Amino acid sequence: MELNADFSKPVVVHSDRIDWQPSPIKGVDRRMLDRIGDEVARATTIVRYAPGSRFSAHTHSGGEEFIVLDGVFQDEHGDYPAGTYVRNPPTTAHTPGSEAGCTIFVKLWQFDMADRTQFHKDMEAELGAPSEGVATAVLHRDAREVVAYSKLEAGAAMTSHAPGGIEMLVISGTVTVDGDVLERNAWLRLPDGAALTATAGDQGAKLWIKTGHLTHAKAPAV
């Protein structure tokens, strides 16, 4: 399967406007944003766990990173409430689920295969002091990518000219990009060489942004 697999083109998905699709696991549904592959895939997805749902134990051969958007995600390593950013690099294993239910934004098979740095962070706790209405936390940085969380006050604007492509998820609030209003859970991807300017709406906005990584995009090595 290929979905939004041409990384030379910009794409915007207003994900709350598309239907949930069932996964192979009962009680776990998903909204696919981009994908190369079938059940083993380089994929960007919003996943919803019904209360009490759980995956069987598995290893992430290509790595996994995710944000908890609502509820509490759980595995044998801990409980991760909304606002948590998690990186599980290649070779890590777990048994994920959620007793109360949760929703996560997850990216699979997008790691440097030599990466072994595993961690989780409370994104809000990482924020620095605001400048011109924008507070930012750098959650992860390596030679391939920079992952950040930004909190914008009402009317504040942020701009990125980062090389290697830009990806953004609206966690809360709204932002306007090139005249398009992106609401909660809207997802944007811009190719290498593009620039991003996002202006927050009346309620401000919280954004997850990754840059530099799209030049490395490829199908999973299986």
TrEMBL record:
Source species, domain of life:
Bacteria
Record-annotated ChrR-like cupin domain positions: 9-111, 131-214
Q: Which CDD domains match?
A: cupin_ChrR_1 (cd20303)
InterPro entries assigned to the protein according to its UniProt record, in alphabetical order: ChrR-like_cupin_dom, RmlC-like_jellyroll, RmlC_Cupin_sf
Indicate what this protein is called per its UniProt record.
Anti-ECFsigma factor, ChrR
Q: What is the lineage of its organism?
A: Bacteria, Pseudomonadati, Pseudomonadota, Alphaproteobacteria, Rhodobacterales
